[in-house]
Request: fold
Amino acid sequence: MKITLIAGARPNFMKIAPIIHAVQNAQNTGKNIQYCLVHTGQHYDHTMSETFFKELNIPQPDANLGCGGGTQAEQTAAIMIAFEKELLENPVDLVVVVGDVTSTMACSIVAKKLNTKVAHVEAGIRSGDITMPEEINRIVTDSLTDYFFTTSEVANQNLRDNGVNEEQIFFVGNVMIDTLLANKSKFLKPAVFEQLELQTKEYIVLTMHRPANVDVAEKLKETISEIVNNVKKLPVIFPIHPRTAKIFSELGIAADNLHIINPTGYLEFNYLVQNAKAVITDSGGITEETTVMGIPCITLRDNTERPETITIGTNELIGTDPKAIKPALEKLFSGQWKKGGIPELWDGKAAERIVDILVSM
Reply:
């Protein structure tokens, strides 16, 4: 079997890395599986993409489509045009897409139009919020997918409710957690840790990039204010997303305990998370990582496609109203935050299960 693996944006790299390693292990035991790695170029910032290849021990891509920038429509179109050419020149038995970014949807459409089967890793997750571009990507991708690799029973049921046949659904676990567990011993202390004299469990990590939180200037200012004023003067470390940085720079926001840093690599970021008192975020993937690391997580969203991080893990969904931040932080500092557990099959072996299934096809 020959497969093409698609990666485009930062979350994708963490998901394809263990799949590549599992394929390589299968090859070493004589299994008949070959892969081609295609990087769409959706993330073109060095820290947001290229450093991940080195950190996660991923080989350089066989093809880089260079489709960064532009509106979502422009980017989708550019990826489809470039990937169609790539797939015609290098046909495969199966295209494997991961997650829910623009590249995931665009390459799925191209593959199906060229009569190539599609496997979706992290299939079936839903937020129920159609205003999120990622939700549209999930729905479109899953409407075209042939093999669904899922992270939870909730995702399985979402697919069944959409009419997917049971034999197409494979509950394998979470490849993001494969990467987390494989690299936990390699986490790197970033320079900012010493520069700011940070102490373990005595600072907060903040990430924000979603339009609901960062696109309206006054709301962003109020959100930051509620955070920095209610963390008992603890440092707030904010690795700022390029999208957020453009808006943030125009607002003149400053506080003694707010520290804006550039995006970090995977190993440095997770060192910060592992040693933080808590994380405040609007990212879905980070809520999975904090759940496995046992770090309290406050999510600034009205919905989530990863409900198991709430029902089982350390995550709490508080919405996008800045006024909800103070009560959540009071709960944290009073010692009442839940301990949480780890969801089923989030054990570091999801990619191994995926490749075993692919080889058996």
Observations:
- The chain has a mean pLDDT of 95.
- The two ends are 9 Å apart (CA to CA).
